Amino acid sequence: MPITVLVVDDQELMRAGLKMVLGAHPDVEVVAEADNGATAVRLAGELIPDVVLMDVRMPVVDGVTATAQILESGCGSRVLVMTTFDLDEHALGALRAGASGFLLKDTPPEDLLSAIRSVAAGDAVVSPKVTKRLLNRLIAADPTRARDPEILDVLTAREREVLEQIAAGRSNAEIAAELFLSEATVKTHVGRVLTKLGLRDRVQAVVLAYETGLVTPGS
Predict the structure, then answer these.
(1) CA distances (Å), 76 to each of 63, 98, 215, in order?
(2) Could you read off the pLDDT of 67-111 as tens digits, one per residue?
(3) What is the pTM of this model?
(4) Please, which of 114, 124, 132, 189 could form a disulfide with 162 given CB 3.0 to 4.6 Å?
């Protein structure tokens, strides 16, 4: 079965371009499109697409709000945010809301397709390094974004170390080498970190590590 995609963007030309790119691949099917967040929420509930390609700056209901509503509905769709520039504060809002990552709108078609396939498979696709750059800027500019570090008290010392490694953008293999653990053990620790903190994926783990001060801008 092809991966079903809902394309959401307020610009008709952008939607048309995405449909043309995705339509050229038999394993991906665009099932609908929407020009605002409210329509996106309704269509996601009706069609339950595997992936929602979500613009963030739209009329009626913005992409951040729509992302939160889609994920809170429990329909099972995963959201991949597309933004014009990588230091877009709205992109961080979408990650907080539970998006599986974000891409720039000028992402090459092959990277877009790879991202859609990864998200459909349950992975997060945003580069932790890009997320770090975004967080460095936003948290340094607005310290009120900080969250109570006591949130992390549920983690063991080893799990905190693993969270630090995740925030540094390291893969399971790299974490295993750094901490002298097997990859299977690292995978177990990562799963426990996400479960204990109520996080969807590694992207949200990076955000939380910064917001709690476990990792600081520039470190």
Answers:
(1) 17, 12, 31
(2) 999 999 989 899 999 888 766 677 777 877 888 888 888 888 998
(3) 0.74
(4) 189
